[in-house]
Amino acid sequence: MELWHDRILVLDFGSQYTQLIARRIREAQVYSQILPCTVPLATILAYRPQGIVLSGGPSSVYEKKAPSVPKDLFDQGIPILGICYGMQLVTHLSGGDVVKAPHREYGRAELVIDDRSDLFKGVGEGGSTVVWMSHGDRIERMPPGFRSIAHTGNSPVAAMKRDDHKRRLYCLQFHPEVAHTPEGSTILRNFVYEICGCKPTWTMQSYVDTAVKQIRDQVGKDRVICALSGGVDSSVAAALTHRAIGDQLTCLFVDNGVLRVGERDQVQKTFASQLHLNLRILDRTNQFLDRLKNVIDPERKRKIIGRQFIAHFEEESKKLKGVKYLVQGTLYPDVIESVSFRGPSATIKTHHNVGGLPARMRLKLIEPLRELFKDEVRVLGKELGLPDEIVWRQPFPGPGLAIRVLGSVTKERLAILRAAETIVEQEIRAAGLYRDIWQAFAVLLPIRTVGVMGDQRTYENVIAIRAVTSLDGMTADWAKIPNDVLGRMSNRIINEVKGVNRVVYDISSKPPSTIEWE
Ligand SMILES: Nc1ncnc2c1ncn2[C@@H]1O[C@H](COP(=O)(O)OP(=O)(O)OP(=O)(O)O)[C@@H](O)[C@H]1O
Ligand SMILES: O=c1[nH]c(=O)c2[nH+]cn([C@@H]3O[C@H](COP(=O)(O)O)[C@@H](O)[C@H]3O)c2[nH]1
Ligand SMILES: NC(=O)CC[C@H](N)C(=O)O
Ligand SMILES: [Mg+2]
């Protein structure tokens, strides 16, 4: 079995596109990993990369505190591709000049290829090709030993290469990783296949084989628990672990009283009967709702729920003998967040954190998805035979409806929200929008407004509909749902859900808003 995969490292200089570079390379079935640009040379070499990409970034190389890399990196015999800031850094460190351009160049440009021998093999054969630019600095003078291999009307050096077969170095002023550069994937493939000599071995099937073997080796005969929500991440992590160690795995699902209609039964049905997982369902509705009584502050709600989850996992794992490991569905974006060279970001929300669990329980962590993006996890889920209803489930937060009933969480208010939420989901599905939308849900506002129903004055609750499109949940845009679909939701909610007389649609993007309201 193939355990080693060729790999490309992406050094991050803070570009908003760094993750995209890694994704494009992975789409070419070559494993790619992001590291902050600040890691020492020895660490980079320890990864044994076949090639290295230097990302773009917001800095200018001539500024005092501009991020850099050890110049020796360019002389290791590992092929390097510098993109935008990466190109400017190569130029700066190798004896060329980078200056502020008189005009920023942002958007579409026509690239004319002057050398099609390797990086641009098969690119722009119709004369020129469209590329996406986003820069304010430019190469004034190339470093010695480099030559231009493509140009645009504005940039005589839109791409360059070092003429040295043993120390290959390529640079692009434009961004091959974005969709606005239609032949960008070909350029990146040329880099990883032709120049770095990588083989396309990194498929989800090989990922399953590798992960299964690693989990088996790690766990031996010990027992393992997995907190299972029925969401994509924990479900795929559980299925993968189950394939590796079978009944040594026990899954725990906690009914925290703030789940959606039928959620618990559905999870039970799918996991116990269809997937034959060892599943324990803990009904802890009363414990959660008691502690949430009269709590209004969102952060307090989140912390209470987080602590409560931990308490129940702890209590239950004590009942199971010989548990040494805890499976978590941590994804690659979670990992990157904490390694970005700009450092971890401010706490906007305390995500109910199962991560608090291991230290206190002395359980060792197993995180079989920590190298994957969400869309890759979905492919993996399919590969493992999970049904579509799980693979394509929209994310649902651990604190559940407690952070969608704004203000005090009571059984009555939860019932109103549940009914509205069911309608939103039904209508989104009926309109065929469920997969294209990252999340669509209802929020119960803590205010009442005046209405008129059957000639009677009403003074009742407001439901907000929130629906967003997103790649990874980090940024999001409000979904442009057709008006007739919105109209149907509004009509049905007001007619069918007692206690609601008004529906509004949330038209905020993230940032500056967030996806959830609390
Ligand atoms: N009701 C629950 N019972 C047990 N564990 C839970 C529950 N809700 C959340 N968790 C745990 O918290 C983790 C984080 O939840 P999160 O919603 O981010 O992931 P997910 O539910 O697996 O996937 P998705 O993001 O698609 O909803 C889950 O992976 C799971 O381990
Ligand atoms: O498991 C979770 N525990 C949480 O505490 C939590 N808070 C938000 N979310 C989900 O994360 C994504 C981003 O949400 P925000 O824009 O509201 O921060 C969205 O997909 C949210 O649904 C959570 N998931
Ligand atoms: N996208 C980038 O990498 C920009 C690099 C540099 N800050 C410039 O404006 O030219
Ligand atoms: Mg979830």
Automatic annotation (TrEMBL):
ATP binds at residues 229-235. GO terms for molecular function: ATP binding; GMP synthase activity; transaminase activity. It catalyses: XMP + L-glutamine + ATP + H2O = GMP + L-glutamate + AMP + diphosphate + 2 H(+). The active site is at residues 84, 175, 177. Pathway: Purine metabolism; GMP biosynthesis; GMP from XMP (L-Gln route): step 1/1. Keywords: Aminotransferase, ATP-binding, Glutamine amidotransferase, GMP biosynthesis, Ligase, Nucleotide-binding, Purine biosynthesis, Transferase. GO terms for cellular component: cytosol. Its EC number is 6.3.5.2. The keyword Acetylation does not apply. Residues 202-393 form the GMPS ATP-PPase domain. Homodimer. Catalyzes the synthesis of GMP from XMP. PANTHER family: GMP SYNTHASE [GLUTAMINE-HYDROLYZING], GMP SYNTHASE-RELATED. This is GMP synthase [glutamine-hydrolyzing]. The lineage of its organism: Bacteria, Pseudomonadati, Nitrospirota, Nitrospiria, Nitrospirales. The gene is guaA.
